[in-house]
Write a structure and sequence with these properties.
By secondary structure, the protein is of the alpha/beta class. It has 5 helices and 7 strands. It has a single domain, classed as Alpha-Beta Complex (Maf protein). Strand 3 and strand 4 form a beta hairpin. Bound molecules: inosinic acid.
């Protein structure tokens, strides 16, 4: 079954292709020739995800899901949260975002943080939300080369390596996005017309 993933981020598309199972053909925005830059300036990640998904559904009539993720740092009152991508400026520079995060946290003892992903699915005109959370801590300097975004400074609970020191397969077993997408996969596989995932 075709389903649109409202993203143009190849990295994410690969990650989600690994998670979602073989019964779905994931289409990116580029695949459906929708190259508008969908605004992401809503006050919460839930609203951002819903806005993107409805935008695509209204434009194309296709079943679609969109995700939005924020890194919530307790000592910063939940920031960067919905502002994670543009924390240090409009150009979404991960290095600058990490620099700003580490500068704000300084030597703060409470380094507790979580990645929270929300997926909004619009299926045959009805909306559904799925949440995934990865709890962890922010370390004081970068470790690892893999991953993206804040991965080099985030150690998930129960591990002593950062997300950037894990392989994609390892990260996909425990990440916020993996948890949210597993919920989406189970839901989609329960819909008779979606077929069943044999993996
Ligand atoms: P998005 O909603 O998935 O685009 O995520 C917003 C921002 O959160 C990204 O630009 C990254 O800075 C950060 N982010 C999201 N997911 C991850 C992740 O798995 N690791 C590290 N940073 C992430």
């Amino acid at each position: 079954m075709d389903i649109v993933f409202a993203t143009n981020n190849r990295h994410k598309l690969t990650e989600i292709n690994n998670l979602i199972g073989k019964s779905f053909c994931l289409l990116s925005l580029a695949d459906i020739n929708l190259d508008n830059d969908i605004p992401e300036n809503n006050p919460t990640i839930e609203e951002n995800a819903l806005f993107k998904a409805w935008y695509v559904y209204r434009a194309t009539g296709r079943n679609v899901f969109a995700d939005d993720t924020g890194l919530e740092v307790d000592a910063l009152g939940g920031e960067p949260g919905v502002h994670s991508a543009r924390f240090a400026g409009e150009n979404k520079n991960s290095d600058a975002n990490i620099d700003k995060l580490l500068a704000l946290l300084g030597d703060h003892k409470n380094r507790r943080a979580r990645f929270r992903t929300i997926i909004a699915l619009i299926f045959n005109g009805a909306e559904y939300l799925f949440e995934g959370i990865a709890e962890g801590t922010i370390i004081k300097s970068r470790r690892g080369r893999d991953g993206f975004g804040y991965d080099p400074v985030f150690i998930p609970d129960g591990y002593d390596v950062t997300f950037a020191e894990m392989t994609l397969q390892e990260k996909n077993k425990i990440s916020h996005r993996a948890i949210a997408f597993e919920k989406l996969r189970v839901f989609l596989n329960g819909i008779p017309e979606a077929g069943h995932d044999e993996t």
